[in-house]
């Protein structure tokens, strides 16, 4: 067993793989809520305990896991990822041979999907290789696409290795939380530090140490000692894609969430092959922002390479209204009015005090606005439209820029159509006063005409 430990922060919760699951969930819920501040009632404690218990049940399905962690950054949201650490027996193989065997098993070539991305990451435990692969699940021409992640360490002097695994059913979520997983992997240690709390499964924040798994070390290839399965997300299937003679890992219950990519077979004459890419805003969770969350929940940006179209459904102004739909062209079509870039434009709304506003713009090659999201206060906009949300759209030739402007007038000059009513937004109170004077003048003229 390699002397392996991983340090984790407050957004992570370590799962006790041996204790009574329900009792552990109640204890962990109290610790998580204490971390978030306040004095929640029993109903809130039961709710969080149920969330943790369901996610921990997924993590405990794999008998070869030695450490299991839950990514749970916000008690008002769901568990974002289930991560398992599994020891691997290298069977006295040399380092190069061991790496080759693991990569062949964890990153097979899958028909119709791009090859796995292998990235080297420097950690305190030595070289770690991150394997990122997308897998289409199911049959037929339209299938959900999941992203599977594995972080691998090899220790040839001990003929052992460690695999950290997880998966996402939502490609947008995968892009959003991959940095958190990279940071977790970077915190791995060959020898755990002496200082700090040490508990293989306990409250948020601490050091999790590698212990012998309940089922023994996993082999590199082939059942029944195949590689450790991919830890499944709470809301979707999860098994790690392996070779034809290897089983898939355990996972969560089948399901899908908004924003997951969809793989479609492209017919002859299509604008381009590849899976559809969908991006949805990150909804605010504060009770004060329920109305904003209700309207933003109707917004979606979906690129269809098969048809060469980009569907944009704008967030409506009222919660009961439907979002306006725009069907635009992708850059691959070569049309003059195709969307070539997105822009997060921030400008100043001048009133009695300054307010900074950010708006998501869909631009053509000349910088003209084809469609736009509703303007949001800058802090909310950063939460709702984080830049990494749009990273998958690079595959269809759509990039993202962030620009700042002095006021709405300057914004509209740079990107015509971004703020048609710039004269009102530059100084709203003056605009209101002008409109009021105009109404008064119309009323006076109407009264004079009536008297005459």
Protein topology:
Blueprint: E1 5-8, E2 12-14, H1 21-36, H2 42-59, E3 67-71, E4 81-89, H3 95-106, E5 117-123, E6 126-136, E7 142-155, E8 160-168, H4 171-186, E9 188-189, E10 206-209, E11 262-264, E12 277-279, H5 290-296, E13 300-304, E14 309-313, E15 325-329, E16 341-350, E17 354-363, E18 369-372, E19 376-377, H6 378-384, E20 399-405, H7 408-414, H8 422-426, H9 428-451
Parallel strand pairs: 16-20
Antiparallel strand pairs: 1-9, 1-10, 2-3, 3-4, 4-8, 5-6, 6-7, 7-8, 7-11, 12-13, 13-14, 14-15, 16-17, 17-18, 17-19
Helix pairs in contact: 1-2
Model description:
The chain has 452 residues and is an alpha+beta fold. Helices cover 25% and strands 27% of the residues. The strands form 4 sheets. Strands 2, 3, 4, 5, 6, 7, 8 and 11 form an 8-stranded antiparallel sheet that branches. It is globular, with a radius of gyration of 26 Å. The termini are far apart.
